[in-house]
Amino acid sequence: MDFAARPLLRAALLLALVLLLALALAALGNALTRAGVARQGMREWQAWSDGASPWQWRLRGPGDVIAARAFGAASVHADDDALAVHYRGGSWQIGLRLARPAALTDAPVLLLSLRQSAALPVAVVVRRTLHARACTAAAGLLPARAGTLRIDLATLPWRCAGRPAPMPAQAAMLRLQSSGPDGARIVLVSAMLLPAQALSPQTPQTWAHWRAQSPPRAGVPVVWLPDTYSPYLLAQRDALWQRDPAAIALPVGAPARAGAARCVLPWDWIAIAACALLMLGLLRWPPHAPRLRALGEAVLALLPVLLIAFGVGDSQRPDARSGALILLALGFALLLSVRRTPLLAPWHWLAPWRQWALPMLPVLAAGLLWLAQPAATPAIGGLLRYLPWAALQQYLLLVIVARRLDYALAWRPLAVLLAALLFALAHTPNTPLMLLAFAAGLLWTGWFLRRGALLPVIVAHALGATLLLGIASNAGWLRSLAIGGRYLGWGG
């Protein structure tokens, strides 16, 4: 083969590999989103079959209620895996988190479990939509001791805008309200909405057939969602819930059955412990081959982030498991940073201004997308808040991971490709964000390994993410910038 043709052949092969990896990332994101929706649907099927509903709250501390606080004259804190509310001589409210509107018509019974209580009045506050007026109903007295309080919402004397009204059919906001003397205290363990009578899931039906139906209905609808691009799949599920919040959404071909019982083993914590042991083992007994050691350090540095993205905890919000993984990633990166590894390429913070143009290309692309459709105006405060997060990501990706891959692998384009792939996988299962991260990761990693400057990439990342955040709520193809279990949540 002619020597002059070899660079062209290598470039063609590299381009083909990039395209194949992009297609694989899109397929992976779509498949994981589909699997997450199916898993959620089967759990809801199980809940309805057990005489419960999808709306259940385990109250372990302030993080389990809206804004992590009480509104009004009370304070909240964790108390032995429960939520303690301390009265301050007035009225207060706490909001229960709703991943989607609650179907009060189908589940009109609110069951509160209390570990400590006093005979104080309690009321329920509901908004049918977040912009609607609040409806309030007095629900009687809390029990004078530990126990449960069963509130039949349909029989309460509801008042909306100061006038008597029937119970709202659904709730986009659900709060508990109480008042009492200074120093009073209750401890809430859990809350759940239950059906007044058993409701069985219906025979699954197509999206078109379900839309053609008109209320009333018997049982809980089960609807097949078309198998499509992940943001559109989640948008169709949200539209289904907007019309009928009790409906069970299943992607076409998913198992139409109740979800299997959860294993009693704490697999999430086992995965976290295994990750920590691998890190400890690599630090304590590193392989003698320097390149193999660098490759292992690069992969393990991003492993905690990948575990979060792939659903360890399967949480709609940050929890102790994701917090533990972030601390693992930070601790491992810190230990690698303080160890002297002279074989790695040097790096620095700044670069001449004329060299900033290339890493800013993703910002230009995000700006054009922002101009092409309705979008929120980027806020300086949001940009400043995102800068530390962008700095952490790029330090981990470029300084810790990319330099080690560059040393471990014989061909720099392969190191760039692998670093960009890991960066994209860290945004799983958000398909469009994975593809955007892959493209930006290719550019930023290649530029950093050549120039060695970190700050331009951090600024470009923060600016680009801020612009994308402004269009996410209005762009059908970009649902949100969330990853992991949060990406599957109601409304993104």
Report on this model:
The protein is an alpha+beta fold. It folds into two domains: 56-194, Galactose-binding domain-like (Jelly Rolls, Sandwich), CATH 2.60.120.260; 263-487, no CATH class. 45% of the residues lie in helices and 18% in strands. The strands form three sheets. Strands 1, 2, 3, 5, 6, 7, 8, 9, 10, 12 and 13 form an eleven-stranded antiparallel beta sheet that branches. A three-stranded parallel beta sheet has the order 14-15-16. Strands 4-11 form a two-stranded antiparallel ribbon. The longest helix has 45 residues, at 5-49. The N and C termini lie far apart (52 Å).
Keywords summarizing the entry:
single chain, alpha+beta, 2 domains, 12 helices, 16 strands, 18% strand, globular
Main beta sheet, described?
Answer: 11 strands, antiparallel
Helix/sheet category = alpha+beta
Beginning-to-end CA distance, first to last residue: 52 Å
How much helix is in the residues? 40-55%
Q: Domains counted in the coordinates: how many?
A: 2
H-E string: HEEEEEEEEEEEEEEHEHEHHHHHHHHH
The number of strands is 16
Give me the oligomer status: single chain
* Poorly predicted parts: none
- Count of helices? 12
User: How much of the polypeptide forms β-strand, as a percent range?
Assistant: 15-25%
What is the radius of gyration computed over CA atoms, rounded to a whole number of angstroms?
Answer: 26 Å
The averaged pLDDT comes out at 89
What spatial form do the alpha-carbon principal axes imply? globular
